[in-house]
Amino acid sequence: MIWRIEIQEKPGIFDSTGAGVRHDILDLGIVSVKDVRAVQVFLLEGDIDRPVADRICRNLLVDLVVQDYILTDRPSKVSPRKGISEVEVAYNPGVMDPVEASTLKGIHDLGLSGVTAVRTARRYIIEGALSSKELELIKDKVLMNKIVQHAVKDARDSFRPLSVAQKEPVLSTPEPARVRMLGLSDKALVELSKKGQLYLNLNEMKVIEKYFAGLKREPTDIELETLAQTWSEHCNHKTFRGNIEYTVTEGKKSTTEFIENLLKQTIVKATNTLNKPWCVSVFHDNAGVIKFDDKFNVCFKVETHNHPSALEPFGGANTGVGGVIRDILGTGLGAKPICNTDVFCFARPDFAFDQLPSGALHPKRVMKGVVSGVRDYGNKMGIPTVNGAICFDDRYVGNPLVFCGTVGIIPRKMEHKKVKKNDLIVVCGGRTGRDGIHGATFSSGDLTHESEVVSSGAVQIGNPIEEKKVLDVLLKARDEGLYTAITDCGAGGLSSAVGEMGAELGARVDLELVPLKYHGLNYAEIWISESQERMVMSVPPKNLERFKQIFAAENVDFAVIGTFPGTGRLELFYNGMRMADLDMAFMHEGTPRITKKALWSAPKHEMPKFESPADLTPKLMEVLADFNICSKEAVVRRYDHEVQGGSVVKPFAGPKCDGPSDASVLRPRLGTDKGIAISNGINPRFGAIDPYWMAASAVDEAIRQIIAVGGDLSQVALLDNFCWGNPDKPDRLGGLVRAAKGCHDLAVAYGTPFISGKDSFYNEYNDKGKSIAIPGTILISAIGMVADVTRSVTMDLKRAGGLLYVVGSTYDEWGASAYLASYGYIGGQVPVVRPREALAVYTSLSKAIARGLVSSAHDCSEGGLAVAVAEMAFAGGLGAALLLKSVPYEGHSDRDDMLLFSESNSRFVVEVAPQDKKAFEKAVKDVPCKLVGQVLADEAVFYYGLKDNLCLKADINVLKAQWKKPLMF
Amino acid sequence: MSMANKPRVLVLRTAGTNCNVETAFAFEQCGADVDQVHLQELFAGRVAMKDYHILALPGGFSYGDDIASGRIFANELRVRLGADVAKFIKDRKLIIGICNGFQILVKSGILPGPFAAGSKTIQTATLFNNDSGKFEDRWVHLKVDGKCVWTKDLPKTIFIPVAHGEGKFIPVNRAVMDGLKKNGQIVFSYVAADGSKPAYPDNPNGSTEDIAGICDPTGRILGLMPHPERHFLFTQHPFWTRLNVGASRRVARTGFGDGAKVFQNGIDYVKKHLL
Questions:
Q1: CA A908/CA A662 separation, integer angstroms
Q2: Does the beta carbon of A796 lie under 8 angstroms from any beta carbon of chain B?
Q3: Which of B53, B227, B231, B237 is catalytic?
Q4: Is residue A897 within 8 Å of A943, Cβ to Cβ?
Q5: I need a surface site. Which of A272, A717, A733, A813 has the fewest CB within 10 A?
Q6: ipTM
Q7: Does the beta-carbon distance from A645 to B126 stay under 8 Å?
Q8: Do B239 and A469 touch (CB under 8 A)?
Q9: Domains of chain B
Q10: B36 touches A: beta carbon within 8 Å
Q11: B18 touching chain A per CB within 8 A
């Protein structure tokens, strides 16, 4: 039988869920809603009587101090009340709500038996007159996401059997399904790829057809699926590893370059050229590994989870974080995550509802969901989120970007792994369900308004507590040396994880041994499911006993599902029946090399025509409120950025804890003073003029942030993340090639190797035949060493009377700046990077900071000098006066706005205590650096122009309020 | 097992506990022997609570805070380990619950206390959703008051961070609140930076009478939402870089933060009364 429990806050107790929903409804522009109450619903199935059900309520489900409940075993007659709408939202069958398993555990803890299944739902009671259209809008935009949830139509639905999935018949041992492929025409092959959601191109389909023709048999469905996963853009990086014919057109002249493997010719080449001894393991593992101290190495990985986040922002971002954390758990023999970074790109939150492409979610909703998803996973795993950025551009409307990064620490000598012949294949952690099927192939195609229907299986909800359990147990098993290799189950599921681990020795898997969430999955679904929170390990048979003990003590499930037999073949069985037999060499090296065309010609932009305003105060106010520049506090506060206790420079600086720090500094080992600095560089705006300088500037920004907090250039490692549109379109690919070249050149110039990277393509949204491509976007993440964290510097002004210096030259580079954007212009000179000059600046400044001569430092980035000084002032609660005439300047303009708002790279504003003046000036004597002003006790900033005119004057509290306001919703 | 020399601390963890390492670090720095033990080990009888002087319930999201924060862990403590807990308390030993640990202590009835294993009334107070409806990480000023072993000689106000979504303290009725006041059980209250009555966000969750932490009537069991272990070191202070610029370099290397004294008090008490 089924018991239904409805739980509601007692009168007088604040219902924060209901209040949140009401706020979201107001955001939709519906003002008639007076009140919303949220009711938590539990459905318990099992053979229990009312007293037992009541005990479960009182001892487990209900907080009697603040909540009331109703326990019932039959549908209540709800008579519609005027002006009240009720909506009940439940998860779709197959979507796992972790609360269900916890509830079962909680009931068991009480010593009660009989409950066999639990489902949860939420009922909303909405007070206020609503049209049926408005109610539908509220359902669709606020209360649920139909990808994972539905509105319960009939009150009686509650009392139908819950465990539907379990009632499905268990498949008897089937013959493998053969797919007719041999001898198919080109057209039929393309059709087959499309129908099977394989996302393989004709060339690839032909190679596969030829392989099986050679074997004189048709492929099985699972063999085709395996190849599609392995060869997907997501897993195989066909664009970056393929060939590119790159043509540059300047005026009437064209030159063409043939690039064989773009990755090897740019990113990897820089690392090879630099050949740093502290690079421990680069590019081939789940994360790049570098040396930390005598006992430990650190590793860093950044991934994207864009397509899933577009469809289901919470689940997409949630599993994105979970996925990159597993990459760290699967690096070497397993690293311990010590911090997360998160960077997002969205359309502007004030995007007009009626302009939304059909099927796309509103950016505000995407942002709320993504932030909640990241918050949920990171906070629950106990990993501090210490660094990030959010960029806004309306071209991200159909394709938001979600970059998730994790840093880990791993004892030295544990960075390498090697599967041994006859090791057992063990899968541990979460169980396998139907979730996330076709995620890898799905992310290798464009999104359309139909994606939410076709690809709904590709989206899922994470369970961070399961992953935390896996983390806890893995580190124990690792330290006892119980396994020889490990990797995560990510895109492509077991197919990809086992395929990778068995690439040399081959693998034999008995698919019926994989633990399932529910019966009814067929063998192919088991193999390619992307269910979260799973890791795969190779365990020598002699260690199995001890392995079992450790896993039991931590309550984590695992199963032996096969072996690495040394045959070089992938053999899959289901209840003894052979389902697949593939040559590993063909799987991993059989991909045909493709040649794509890339074109580049510099775009033409209108040159700005306007006078520099005499009073630039209103412009500074405007630029500070730019979504890209304004405070991200509302987001960052929701992340636990201090758990684990290692934070030294936090995301917030200053006496009010609200100034925007540059890099974050972290002490990975409590009790020691060596630290790491984590930063990022991203500015999609620059790409509108030249992706080469966009990439170069991103590298520079990431590095200068590390310098600003007290790191130095002796050991900085970089990560690249390219997010682009459809790479089959030559103009898109041209920009990508330029960006990759920019990465190479700057990495070499700065001596900062790339250690890991990732790409995401097909970020285009097809709406009624029109394609919206994202601006080609590159994120550079950086990790540097801080020799002594007690020398760290923050960006808030410290003392009235402090001397302000600008270090690094300003040029006439306001192209693609926030300032020009405020006038609606792009054009002009985009900031370039002058590595020789910058290197000297970085080296001198690092030395001055290490000697304790700098009391605050902030890098100049978006909004230039004007924004940097304003941020330092209001973060420190102090004023500043500044003479533009004294700023080191290499340009030819006589405009105050050029000096204030140029976004030239490699510049800092630093504060020096008066007693350190001499020593500081001596330390920076070889680089462009000038005394430009002073810190004031007055809470105001004064900027004096080139003709000593007062061109900007503002109260710092007014500036701060303006800067804080835009995203506080 | 010999308990003669050093205070022994049991840092209890389970699925979703995530502040155990830094909590253990804090006790170790104060001179304790610390074991971080999974609940499962207690259930299986491989580890016994009685072998320790201090029981610490660290922060985190035990069992995902599914159903309600700390609820499942609280039931396990109450139902499966109730007798051990009662004995531990009777032996005049110490308990501290931080953040999720505080939620567990309140939901199992150990706080405000007194705890009676097998009692019908379990909870006399709760920690409920923040008024903001959000999880927030921010630093708060706390007024120190009451009669508690853990807060001996602390300054009048301390500065430590909170990081939670369910920290609003609500007593079940007026009588419970009056009892807390009468017995000196209100140990930490949120205050504004100048020590005055706080509004949001100085009171980050809307807690009744700004309560941030309470102890039991004996003063030996402490629960609090803010994290003293996150201000154990001076460099964990959110703006340590601007405190006495000249001297801070030296302090940064050796100095402790406002939270350190809490752990030291626990260890000192054990040394004086239990060793």
A1: 11
A2: yes
A3: B227
A4: no
A5: A272
A6: 0.96
A7: no
A8: no
A9: 8-274 (3.40.50.880)
A10: no
A11: yes
Domain residue extents for chain A? 2-167, 793-969
Contact B238 A799 (CB under 8 A): no
Query: Which of B99, B148, B215, B231 does the annotation list as catalytic?
Result: B99
- C-alpha distance from residue A569 to each of A227, A501, A582, A583, B275 (Å): 13, 12, 6, 5, 64
First to last CA, chain A: 44
**Amino acid identity, residue B32?**
A
Q: In the CATH scheme, what is the code of domain A2-167?
A: 3.30.1280.10
Q: Do B170 and A66 touch (CB under 8 A)?
A: yes
Q: Cα separations (Å) of A416 from A284, A333, B81?
A: 11, 7, 43
For the record, the structure tokens of A235 come out as 């897993």
Task: Report chain B's terminal Cα–Cα distance, integer Å.
Answer: 13
* pLDDT classification of B244: cutoffs 50, 70, 90: low
State residue A590's pLDDT score: 86
Of B144, B36, B55, B54, nearest to B101 (Cα)?
Answer: B55
Enumerate residue ranges in chain A where pLDDT < 70: 78, 94, 163-173, 436-459
Does the domain at A793-969 match CATH 3.90.650.10? Answer given as yes
The 3-state DSSP class for residue B36 equals strand
- Contact of A967 with chain B, judged by CB distance below 8 Å, is answered with no
Where residue A183 falls (left for φ over 0; alpha for ψ -120 to 50; beta otherwise) is: left
Structure-token match 């941030």, residue found:
B212
pTM: 0.95
Are A652 and B41 inside 8 Å of each other by CB?
A: no
- Assess contact for A683 and A628: CB atoms under 8 A: no
Main-chain dihedrals φ then ψ at residue A391, nearest 5 degrees: -110, 150
Which of A:362-421 have CB within 8 Å of B? 375, 379-382
Query: Collapsing DSSP states into helix, strand and coil, what is residue A466?
Result: helix
Cα separation, A731 vs A744, whole angstroms: 21
Contact B61, B18 (CB under 8 A): yes
pLDDT, residue A109, reads 92
Instruction: For residues A445 and A433, give the distance between their C-alpha atoms in angstroms, rounded to a whole number.
Output: 24
In the prediction, which pLDDT does A858 show? 98
Q: Which of residues 636-655 of A touch B (CB under 8 A)?
A: 637-645, 647-650, 652-655
Alpha helices in A67-157 (DSSP H): 98-109, 132-138
Cβ neighbors of A569 (< 8 A, separation 6 or more) are: A506, A581, A582, A583, A584
pLDDT at A539: 98
pLDDT tens digits, A265-279:
999 999 999 999 999
Residue the block writes with tokens 């979507």: A95
Q: What secondary structure does DSSP assign to A711-763, as a single string? A: --GGGEEEEEEEE-S-TTSHHHHHHHHHHHHHHHHHHHHHT--EEEEEEE---
8-state DSSP, A142? I
- Tell me, what amino acid is at B261? K
For the record, the structure tokens of A852 come out as: 């304790």
A894: phi then psi, degrees, rounded to nearest 5:
-110, 20
Q: What is the pLDDT of residue A694?
A: 98
> What 8-state DSSP symbol labels residue B15?
T
Report the helix count and the strand count for chain B, using DSSP H and E.
Answer: 8, 11
A396 three-class SS? helix
What lies within 8 Å, CB to CB, of A161 at 6+ separation is A2, A45, A167
Determine contact: A119 vs chain B, CB below 8 A.
no
